[in-house]
Amino acid sequence: MSPNYIRSFSEGCLRPPTVIGQFHTLFFGSIRMFFLGVLGFAVYGNEALHFSCDPDKREVNLFCYNQFRPITPQVFWALQLVIVLVPGAFFHLYAACKSIKQEDILQKSSYTGFYIFSVFLRIVLEVVAFWLQIQLFGFKVNAIYMCDVGALEKKFNITRCMVPEHFEKTIFLIAMYTFTVITVILCVAEIFEISCRRLGFLKPQ
């Protein structure tokens, strides 16, 4: 791929053709990633080390932590961010290969329809991620986790485990749910902006 294609692709990703799309990129690319990368590591970075059960043995702690966290929240949210970026990246790659200028995307119906489809696909992926987050993490992190250790052939099948910094994790969970809701609202608003531009209610940028 030539440098011109790469430049067009990067400009398209960083500067979408709509005002709301540009704000979404700013919100998604900076605030959300900063929150996850910096604060997420601070909250979840040492969780496995401080997760302790009764009895406080390494094999029990490790077994119960894997049961408590089938996937770590940082990995889940990082995958969510990458997957949600894919539809827009495909569209801007297509636009770069076809030498489509950003200002022309909303002028031709086929380009506009393709772009709206990519935004709609982002909405679907965000909603699916929202549902998966509920199934995996719920809305609250309890201080005590009851772990089934029957597979370890222990005397008692259920043991109590202490979850470190459970209140901070609950706040972080709510924040990530909020970010997902905000990005979905921005995507819906972007489709509305495109429709208004196509109908002539809004002037081109």
From TrEMBL:
The chain crosses the membrane at residues 25-44, 75-94, 114-134, 171-192. The keyword Zinc does not apply. It is a multi-pass membrane protein. InterPro entries: Connexin, Connexin_CCC, Connexin_N, Connexin_N_sf. One of its GO terms (molecular function) is gap junction channel activity. Keywords: Cell membrane, Disulfide bond, Membrane, Transmembrane, Transmembrane helix, Transport. It is found in: Cell membrane. Residues 125-194 form the Connexin cysteine-rich domain. One of its GO terms (biological process) is cell-cell signaling. It comes from the Eukaryota. One of its GO terms (cellular component) is connexin complex. Its main location: membrane. PANTHER family: CONNEXIN (PTHR11984), GAP JUNCTION EPSILON-1 PROTEIN-RELATED (PTHR11984:SF1). Belongs to the connexin family. Beta-type (group I) subfamily. A connexon is composed of a hexamer of connexins. This is Gap junction epsilon-1 protein.
